[in-house]
Amino acid sequence: MTPYHAPVLVLSALLDLARAGRRANAASLGLRARLSLAQVADSLAHLEARGLVDARGCRLTLGGLAVATSLAAQAARVGDLARVA
């Protein structure tokens, strides 16, 4: 896994938890994204520096929500294409 994968996994985990109506914390993000707590903390700091998450609250910003939703839609399209092929 490259260093850029972990933040994307954390964004996805935050979106999944938000859609399920569950509050996120470092442990729940780590479990959902299959990352260590250190990787989660680094990813949250990386994403917060870009304005995509509130690291202290473990939640997406409006911009982060837009990015995470867009990534999820792209992943769904790729999955649909793979099933057709």
What structural keywords apply?
two-stranded antiparallel sheet; Arc Repressor Mutant, subunit A; 85 residues; 69% helix; mainly alpha; 4 helices; single chain; 5% strand
Would you mind describing this structure in some detail?
The chain has a two-stranded antiparallel sheet with strand order 1-2. The relative contact order is 0.16. The chain is built from four helices and two strands. The protein has one domain (5-78): Orthogonal Bundle (Arc Repressor Mutant, subunit A). The protein has helices at residues 5-19, 26-33, 37-49, 62-84; strands at residues 53-54, 59-60. The longest helix has 23 residues, at 62-84. With 85 residues, the chain is mostly helical. 69% of the residues lie in helices and 5% in strands. The model has no long low-confidence stretch (mean pLDDT 91).
Span from first to last CA?
26 Å
Major beta-sheet overview:
2 strands, antiparallel
Q: How would you describe the oligomerization state of the chains in this entry?
A: single chain
Largest sheet: spatial strand order:
1-2
SS-based class:
mainly alpha
CATH architecture assignment name? Orthogonal Bundle
Would you identify the CATH H-level superfamily?
Winged helix-like DNA-binding domain superfamily/Winged helix DNA-binding domain
Extended strand count: 2
- The CATH topology, please? Arc Repressor Mutant, subunit A
The helix count comes to: 4
Contiguous uncertain segments of 5+ residues: none
Q: What value does the average pLDDT take?
A: 91
Overall outline:
globular
* Topology order in helix (H) and strand (E) letters: HHHEEH
CATH secondary-structure class: Mainly Alpha
- Helix content bin: 55-70%
User: Strand content of the residues, in percent?
Assistant: under 5%
